[in-house]
Amino acid sequence: MNNKKIKATTQDHLDIADIRDNLVVLNDGGAVVILETNAINFDLLSIQEQDAAIAAYSSLLNSLSFPIQVTIRSKRIDITEYLEKVKDIEEKQPNPKIRDQIRKYRSFIQDELITKENVLDKNFYVSIPYKIFDIGGNGSAFASLFGISGGSSSKQRINIDKILQEATADLEPKKNFIIKEFARIGIKAKQLNTTELIKLFYEIYNSETAQSQKLRGNVEDYTSALVEPKIA
């Protein structure tokens, strides 16, 4: 029996080395800036508006001199707090008829939408990388951040401060260009800050736990690991 002490942690198998200065630093020495965007309802646009949107998006793609990754993330919405607020309003409503209507509305949300249907929310992200070391296999150095390729067990010794300095200078104009071009087609894009990035990847790597245990307050106040292993 091997009694050698195991020192490996879950973090050793993640592609992320650190999240600082609004950037995701990767174990291979790369970095990623992530933008969150809204979406346009294409079906509600007129034919002319649809053609204009397609032409503008095509122009955006053709103008790129650097790679990007567009990610659509679907997640089940937790509306527990909303239902509690509705119930509180119901209990405080003095008019019995209005109170009954509120009760029926709450029952419909709880019994029909939640029980029979998955209430999903979609989030749209655009990732812009600094350095790409592997185009083959997973498609890019940052593909595995959203679960596309899976984590890597190898971890290099990297200078995070140096990477952050170089990546910021490289990615800042690219980020501004993407935001400007998206605005031309009516899409608002904003860079996720450090706190938002940590919360995003906490939810990705702890999908089940995040439903009941949300990060609150300043994430820098947490002293234990935010990522936990999945045990079959």
Helix tally? 6
Question: Helix-strand pattern, N to C?
Answer: EEEHEHHEHEHH
- Quaternary state of this entry equals single chain
Fraction of residues in helix = 25-40%
Mean pLDDT: 78
Main β sheet profile: 6 strands, antiparallel
Strand content: 15-25%
Question: Alpha-carbon distance between the termini?
Answer: 23 Å
Number of domains: 2
Shape: flat
**What Rg, in angstroms, do the CA atoms define?**
22 Å
Q: Could you name the ranges where pLDDT drops below 50 across 5 or more consecutive residues?
A: 134-142, 147-153
Structural class of the helices, strands and pairings? alpha+beta
User: Based on DSSP secondary structure assignment, what is the total number of beta strands?
Assistant: 6
Can you give keywords for this protein?
6 helices, 232 residues, 40% helix, alpha+beta, six-stranded antiparallel sheet, 2 domains
SSE topology:
Elements: E1 16-20, E2 23-26, E3 31-37, H1 47-63, E4 69-76, H2 80-92, H3 96-116, E5 120-130, H4 160-184, E6 189-191, H5 194-205, H6 209-212
Antiparallel strand pairs: 1-2, 2-3, 3-5, 3-6, 4-5
Structure description:
This protein is α+β, with helices and mostly antiparallel strands and 232 residues long. It has 2 domains: 10-74 and 123-221, no CATH class; 78-118. The protein contains 6 helices and 6 strands. It is flat, with a radius of gyration of 22 Å. Residues 134-142 and 147-153 have low confidence and may be disordered.
Write a compact overview of the structure shown.
40% of the residues lie in helices and 16% in strands.
